[in-house]
Amino acid sequence: MSTMINPTAFDAFAEAYDDDFTHSTLGQLLRPRVWNVLAQHFSAGQHVLELTCGTGEDALWLARRGVHVTATDGSAEMVEKAKAKAEAAGVTRGGEEARRWGSLEIEQISLQEVIEGYFAGLRSPVSGPPFDGVFSNFGGLNTIGEWRSLAAALAEIVRPGGTVILVPMGPFCPWEIGWYLAHGQPRQAFRRFSRNGAPAKIGAAVIPIWYPSAGRLRADFAPWFTHLTTQSLELWLPPSYLDHFVNRRPGLFHRLNRFEKATARLTGGWGDHYIIVFKRN
Length: 281
Ligand SMILES: C[S@@+](CC[C@H](N)C(=O)[O-])C[C@H]1O[C@@H](n2cnc3c(N)ncnc32)[C@H](O)[C@@H]1O
Hints:
This protein is an alpha/beta fold and 281 residues long. Helices cover 40% and strands 21% of the residues. It has a 7-stranded mixed sheet with strand order 3-2-1-4-5-9-8, with helices on both faces. Strands 6-7 form a two-stranded antiparallel sheet. Strand 6 (198-202) and strand 7 form a beta hairpin. The radius of gyration is 18 Å and the shape is globular. S-adenosylmethionine is lined by residues 7, 10, 52-54, 57-58, 73-75, 78, 110-112, 137-140, 143.
């Protein structure tokens, strides 16, 4: 099985993505947790490359904090949504608000193109690598099954001391294991541990999804990057396909979110997702 997929499969998600996830109770608990980490590492005036930006929610948040963002995604429909949002907010280059805040450029670029060196020729105004940091949120990186070549490509375009923040889906998700075991589906319960990619239904397409452990990413990034932190995201909170639990007991899940946040560094790469941070050597 090829270790990369064609991201056009995600076109089918673009229309409903914000309603189904971003604006859901669960989405509104999760995104600020990631923003909290972004705020610790990215500051106004910096230039950040976002990979797999989806509908541009995080890119817009960064731009509103004064960060210049080049946001990319492989899905044409996702890119359209993100562009419409950026234009409405006036943060596209030359836009009314881009002078006050950061600017936001959005391009249809796949991870495959980034790995093949799409940004490699770019230089920053001081003729170093062009980006102060790179970021990918909520599972965009799970459509590739090999991360060392991505790390090598990022090493070319992130300045020394720059930060890479990744939020992949991890292999060990107790909610998922429990849910599928309770429904008599042991293969589904442990599908994330498959080395060849676990088939997942994305719209009408079935594509392989790979679930790297934090240890695997640390090893793949080690030649060029120093690992700073790993923290769980959705260990006590469920994956989004089980968000009906959250909607039924929002008070309980707000408390679990606070507990998860306080203990996230202890549980590292466990959970539906995790947040891992690297610094370029
Ligand atoms: C679950 S969504 C996350 C979107 C966004 N980062 C967020 O936080 O809402 C995954 C995104 O990754 C993009 N994606 C998946 N595989 C990709 C690839 N190989 N190259 C570029 N984008 C990809 C999809 O198009 C989709 O927008």
